[in-house]
Structures are given as C-alpha cells and as structure tokens.
Amino acid sequence: MFSYMVGKVISQNKKSITFENNYTGYVVYVTNPQDFEINRVRKIYLYKHLAGGNKNNFIEELYGFDKYETKELFISLIAISGIGPKTAMNICRNDCVMIKQLIAKRDVDSLASLEGLTVKYAKLIIDNLYEDYHSKELNDNNLDIANLIKALKSLGYNANEIEMAIRNINVMQTNMELSDLISQAIKIIATQQEKYGSTAKAH
C-alpha cells in the first residue's frame, strides 16, 4: 500500500497527472491537476483503489493529494456507502478544514452549498462522520483551554479570574488562535476589574 511518493510531474489533464517515480510513470487522479506544476519534483500522498472492470477484473486506480489531511478526508468519504472515489474527489476540491468544521456543526445547508455536494450527500456525510469530527473538534478545543489556562496562570491571574474569562470567551464556539484567546481573556479580566473594582492584579 502506497503512503506517498516523491517524484516529478510529467503531464496533466482535466482529472489526472502523470507522475514519474524511479523511471516509472503513474496516472494519478487529483482534485486540481493545474495545481501540480509540470517538471516539478514533489511529494504526493497516494491512495490505491481497486475498481471493478469487465469480466470481474479489477483495475487499480491511484488517487493523489498534496496534503495528508485531504487524503484522510477522502478515505473517510469513500467508506460511506453511496459515495465512490470520483464523488469523494469532487468533494475534496473544497477546503478540507471547512468541510470538517461544517460536519462537526451539523450544518447541512452550508455543506450542501459546496462544490460537488448536494443536500442528499451533505446529510449522508454528516450522519456518518459527525461523531468523528465533533469529537475531534472537542479534543482540539480542550487542548486550547488547557494551554490558555497555563498561559494565564503564568501571567499571574488567579483561578477565579481565569474561570470567568474562559466562561465569557466561550472557547468551545470559537476558532481563535491561542494568542488571540490570551489577548481576549486579558481584556475580559481587565474589564471586570474596572467594573467591580477588583484588587486582583496580574504580575
């Protein structure tokens, strides 16, 4: 099973590229062939799919991705009954991070509006992948909370101030970077100190 290859892009057409590795050329289906510059040496993450051919023969098809995260999403999609590799590739033309966020939020309408998707596919994807991506988003947010608490403690804020700041930021519903979360928390604490005349100060 291929994980990835490093080689040279020899040619491209509407749906695939020819990718040379160790003097062998491979036809690789990709989401956006124009993004793969001809004669450039690069890494491509690969997935080998066995497609049914004539007379019960199987045809090997290679699907390629410039990012491992896109390959992961593709594999998750084709594991869903009713979604084949061609449909999955069309869906993967969109931003993968955005797709995962929409799945985690159960946002059927927004997901259905993306290229390669319909309401039928959006519902099917959310029904099958919601738990996986929702859980991952919660884990990522919990990591942000832990790092935020650690950073605020290092700045000298006490437990009550930190708890109040996190409650008001509502971290679980934001996509802010940690540095932005810290800045927002400091502003919230400062506002509360001014409002209630708290004597607690950060060092």
Question: Would you kindly provide a written description of the structure presented here, covering whatever features stand out?
Answer:
The chain has 203 residues and is an alpha+beta fold. It is built from 7 helices and 5 strands, in the order E-E-E-E-E-H-H-H-H-H-H-H. It has helices at residues 68-78, 85-91, 96-104, 108-112, 119-154, 159-169, 178-196, and strands at 4-12, 16-21, 24-29, 41-52, 58-65. The protein has a 5-stranded mixed beta barrel. Helix 3 (96-104) packs across helix 5. The protein is elongated and about 80 Å long.
In which order are the strands of the major sheet placed?
1-2-3-5-4
Helical element count? 7
Report strand %.
15-25%
Give unreliable regions as ranges.
Answer: 198-203
Largest sheet: 5 strands, mixed, barrel
Secondary-structure-derived class: alpha+beta
Radius of gyration from CA coordinates: 23 Å
Structure keywords:
203 residues, 5-stranded mixed β-barrel, 7 helices, 5 strands
What is this structure, in a nutshell?
With 203 residues, this protein is α+β, with helices and mostly antiparallel strands.
Topology overview:
Elements: E1 4-12, E2 16-21, E3 24-29, E4 41-52, E5 58-65, H1 68-78, H2 85-91, H3 96-104, H4 108-112, H5 119-154, H6 159-169, H7 178-196
Parallel strand pairs: 3-5
Antiparallel strand pairs: 1-2, 1-4, 2-3, 4-5
Helix pairs in contact: 1-2, 3-5, 5-7, 6-7
